[in-house]
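RECORD TYPE: inverse folding
INPUT: structure tokens
STRUCTURE:
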């Protein structure tokens, strides 16, 4: 495990160094736009490294386990966890729909200037306080996911995202599927049972773009 982590860490650090070298070279060549596009790769690579370090810190198994490795008690616990995550997802989607309606309403207000809006939902799963590796001085975040934002969530809400690792009788919402199947490294089913808290951040940004050469900087009916 330690050897694999060291190799992965070295790989990620080398990637970041390579991106930084490429970025510096592009800036020197005045290829500023392309250089800026590389910056997001640093953040993405750093997040992958953070996930791997969390896996090592909390003693996660590498790779998924399958259901026949679980006891009946664990099997039932996974079903309970899946149901709770599903309820959390419904709360998130309900809140998102309220925010989305409010944004549409605000955008039609002639007394407000709104050029664009962004909604960002980030979700962290934290280690249970009962876990032997829980650290009261740490945030104990096991994983972080970015919840997809789309106008029509029916494809997410009304689909069973259960994959081949789990029993067919267990319904998996998108959030549970994302946590259990899309991370790198993938958490084992057994390690998912170590989740004790879910933290949700919903950020709403109203954006305004001002043309300083225009005589009107406010909404259409503002004479500024």
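DESIGNED SEQUENCE:
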């Amino acid at each position: 495990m330690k050897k694999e982590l060291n190799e992965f860490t070295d790989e990620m650090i080398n990637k970041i160094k390579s991106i930084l070298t490429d970025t510096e070279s592009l800036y020197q060549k005045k290829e500023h736009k392309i250089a800026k596009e590389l910056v997001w790769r640093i953040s993405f690579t750093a997040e992958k490294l953070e996930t791997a370090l969390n896996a090592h810190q909390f003693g996660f198994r590498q790779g998924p386990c399958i259901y026949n490795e679980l006891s009946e008690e664990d099997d039932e616990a996974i079903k309970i966890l899946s149901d709770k995550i599903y309820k959390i997802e419904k709360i998130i989607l309900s809140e998102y729909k309220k925010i989305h309606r409010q944004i549409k309403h605000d955008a039609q207000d002639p007394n407000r200037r709104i050029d664009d809006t962004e909604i960002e939902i980030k979700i962290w799963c934290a280690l249970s306080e009962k876990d032997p590796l829980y650290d009261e001085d740490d945030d104990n975040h096991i994983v972080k996911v970015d919840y997809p934002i789309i106008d029509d969530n029916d494809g997410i809400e009304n689909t069973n995202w259960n994959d081949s690792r789990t029993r067919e009788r267990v319904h998996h919402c998108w959030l549970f599927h994302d946590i259990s199947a899309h991370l790198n490294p993938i958490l084992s089913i057994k390690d998912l049972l170590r989740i004790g808290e879910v933290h949700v951040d919903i950020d709403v940004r109203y954006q305004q773009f001002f043309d300083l050469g225009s005589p009107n900087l406010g909404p259409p009916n503002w004479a500024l």
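NOTES: Residues 110 and 118 are 20 Å apart (CA to CA).
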